[in-house]
Design a protein that fits this description.
The protein is an alpha/beta fold and 397 residues long. Helix content is 46%, strand content 15%.
Length: 397
């Protein structure tokens, strides 16, 4: 099968979707995938400053050397509004593909790809990546309503199928009336990226400011939706009982860093909180592996990739219900709590005060990922989704 993924940006600093798309494409391109190898490409707006890094990262993935990267001209000026140049560059790529997989919603490159696909009689699948969930639509509501009326609504409804990453997202899309065909295919993990795990003290060796003390890890975009403010308050509460712990915050700044710095200063815990910026590759894995617990008190996730990564490293997790990862509670991989400071503090305290129990949680989470959430399994499910959509879905006209 000839598969073309289209995403606005493949820069890893743009958040979860670029990481997800590159890994899904690589898994689909692997020669040992049933029915494969598939011919897989990714089209995206170019980011020249990090183009070499993007290519290097994709090539390093299992199967990544078989993925064709199509860096379209930058999205500056009118292109950022019209997507006209993208339409011209996408036409031969869409024409050659058997299925087109769009990732995201609010970008002209996606709107152009959908229009090109309809013009050429090609079916496409659209993965909103949580952007059509009720919470997401409540942000910048008026602007999004206008965008939907200007063509993005037709783009969504014209897909052969919508690709949801969780049961929650599927239910939201159906209840919202976005489409009658919604398939649930989760994200996954390349176990090779986490094997072998670094030694537990590897991160401490690289960060002497931690003084070898145990730490709670937050790893995500520094954005208000991720709940860093709640985590800081909860962490301040548990220090009375667990004074040796530190909080390590990993991720690119999306507007929340300044507020967090001021908050921890006001709470009097600035010396216990460490903002280390974004980490990738082995450094990121070392941060997971060396942590006593991972915490993501998010306001909204369609699929928490960092939660899955933490579990792949055998780390107990404390997450909010809005992370929509119910497996955590079902298999005993950590605590799923209300999105309240007190509940988050209680969850952290229960995990951190019982190291042996935390190890058992870590083993349960690791088994969950290995048995259910690998990219190899996801790739097979995604190809099945394409076959169903191409064979029986709507053509989007």
């Amino acid at each position: 099968m000839k598969i073309l993924h289209v995403i606005p940006d493949l820069n890893p600093s743009a958040g979860g979707p670029p990481m997800v798309v590159s890994r899904l494409a690589a898994a689909q391109a692997q020669a040992d995938l049933e029915g494969g190898p598939h011919e897989v490409g990714i089209a995206f707006y170019d980011t020249p400053a990090v183009r070499e890094q993007i290519e290097e990262d994709v090539r390093a993935l299992p199967g990544g050397d078989r993925v064709r990267l199509h860096a379209l001209a930058e999205a500056g000026g009118l292109e950022g509004v019209t997507g006209a140049r993208a339409a011209r560059e996408l036409s031969p790529l869409v024409k050659a593909a058997e299925v087109v997989h769009l990732h995201g919603v609010w970008s002209p490159i996606l709107l152009s790809a959908s229009r090109v696909a309809r013009r050429l009689g090609k079916k496409y699948v659209l993965a909103p990546h949580g952007m059509l969930d009720p919470w997401a639509l409540s942000e910048k509501r008026t602007k999004k309503r206008v965008a939907l009326a200007m063509g993005f609504g037709r783009m969504v409804k014209g897909a052969a199928a919508l690709h949801a990453h969780s049961v929650y997202e599927r239910e939201s899309l159906i209840e919202g009336g976005w489409h009658g065909v919604v398939e649930t295919v989760p994200n996954g993990i390349f176990l090779d990226e986490f094997r072998p795990l670094p030694e537990r003290d590897a991160f401490h060796r690289g960060h002497p400011e931690l003084h070898g003390q145990p730490y709670v890890l937050f790893l995500a975009r520094l954005h208000e939706v991720k709940g860093l403010d709640l985590l800081a308050d909860a962490f301040a509460q548990i220090l009375a009982d667990l004074p040796t712990y530190r909080l390590v915050v990993v991720g690119p700044d999306f507007g929340a860093r300044e507020g967090l710095v001021e908050q921890v200063r006001r709470l009097g815990i600035a010396d216990r909180v460490h903002l280390v910026g974004p980490l990738y590759g082995k450094e990121k894995v070392a941060a997971y592996a060396g942590s006593a617990c991972f915490c993501l008190p998010s306001k909204h996730e369609s699929f928490g990739m960092s939660v899955a990564e933490a579990m792949a490293c055998g780390v107990a997790v404390v997450i909010t219900e809005q992370c929509h990862f119910p497996d955590v509670g079902e298999v005993g991989a950590g605590r799923v709590v209300l999105r309240e400071v007190g509940a988050i503090a209680t969850g952290l305290r229960e995990v951190l005060s019982n190291p042996r129990g935390a190890e058992e949680m870590g083993r349960a989470g690791k088994a969950l990922i290995e048995g259910k959430y690998t990219w190899e399994r996801v790739a097979r499910a995604s190809v099945g989704m394409y076959e169903s959509a191409v064979g029986g879905g709507r053509d989007g006209r």
